[in-house]
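Hey Z.,

So I finally got round to the zinc ion thing we talked about over coffee. Here's the setup:
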Amino acid sequence: MEALPNRGESGSNPSRAIRDAIRDGIRDGIRDGIRDAIRDGIRDTIRPPEVPTPLPLRSCSPTGAPPSPPGRVHGALPHHMTPWPRACDAAGGIPMSFTAVHPDRGRLDATLPDLGCGWAWTAIHRVQPPVSLACPECGHGMHAKKSSLGLRFFAHAPGSPACTLSEESMAHHLLKLELAQAARAAGWTAELEVSGPDGSWRADVLASSATGGRVALEAQLAGITVDEIRARTARMNSDGVRVCWFSDRSRIPWLGAVPSVQLIRQGDELMAAGPVARFRGTYWHPEPSIRLAEFIRGILTSRLLARAPQSPQRFSEQVVETLWASPRCFSAEAEKLREDEQRQRAADEGELRAERCGWARLDAKEAELLARGDHTRGALVRHSAGLPGLEDAMDQVAEMHRTRVTVGWSVGDARYSSGIPLVDDAGTLLAVFDPMPQSLPCQDFLLDVSLPLLFASDERRERFDEYRARCERIRAGRYAVSS
Ligand SMILES: [Zn+2]
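And the result:
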């Protein structure tokens, strides 16, 4: 009975492989105790069988998970893996791993049909003399083992030191296996229990593509602090390895603090439940859960990216720092934020313009009232009134405002760029006649005051418009530098 590890015989669905293995095991006459354990999950009491075989895998929601029995090594079992720890206990409950090191062949991977080194399982399992194998983590001796349900693994020889690999729960090992199989189904190479170049990290599953992409798939079932999981993520990232963390806990304190996903069981399928999201114009909305294999294919091929959302979220439970979404959604969000920013900038600029305009008109009125007190200016005003074209301009402005219009006594003030101020009786500036392009730095006043400028000819208007456009550009540059 070749079950779980041999993908060639079991097709591409790891869940089905597990279910079939269990069913076959039961058919083969495994003890009632195991069958009960499979049916009852992690309940401690063993009861007489109530339903005939074959038995389906138990499915349950994260919130409906039964309490973990106290004092067990795998005290917090993932629900979707429920049958397996008992099955393994029946097979010995031995501290195990999926990888071992051979002095000549190098790394052996029990989850690959050829052990990843072109060697058959039968060449290392139950052979005399025993094949020399060592733990990749602690270097202690190991031997090839097979559970009663056909799961191949390596077990530490008696007397092994404390070793992080042997401390991992069976549930953890089995989740690693599912992650590796999903990565392989996506066409990537997946190695289990791979250490980083300087030993500062060890990936549960390291998926690699032909083009050099590397993604660590981490099964995190035990508790871990947000700081620690961030630090571990940073260590892998600094070696150019992307990371995704997987857990099936109902409450995951670090969910979204790093690229991560919550797993739930739906029927036979292990599903990625979130935070996978879609951007819909304003908010990030949660997406329905997708099959684990589909999710892993998505993250490996970058059809799903982990990014920090900038817009508000519509997740019911917790706001996340990092979520998974398609590149198109992140582009749509970026575009929306750009538009918002442009709108805001335009509104700010409009406000600033209005403010400048108000000050400019107030200044002009003050200058005009001040000039009216200076009787020596009368001659200049009378002289200016005789300029060609001015009378027509005054008529136009008078028509526009339905008021009497005169040449302002502030004529000659530099702010008009040699133009003639046209004012009402109260001294309010209404228009400027024939301002001239100048080689001097531009007068902000005429840019700000936002009043009609009237000219004696089209040619003079065009010349001034060019000058004014140049002044606007210079000022925009000045504004950009100073802000
Ligand atoms: Zn070890």
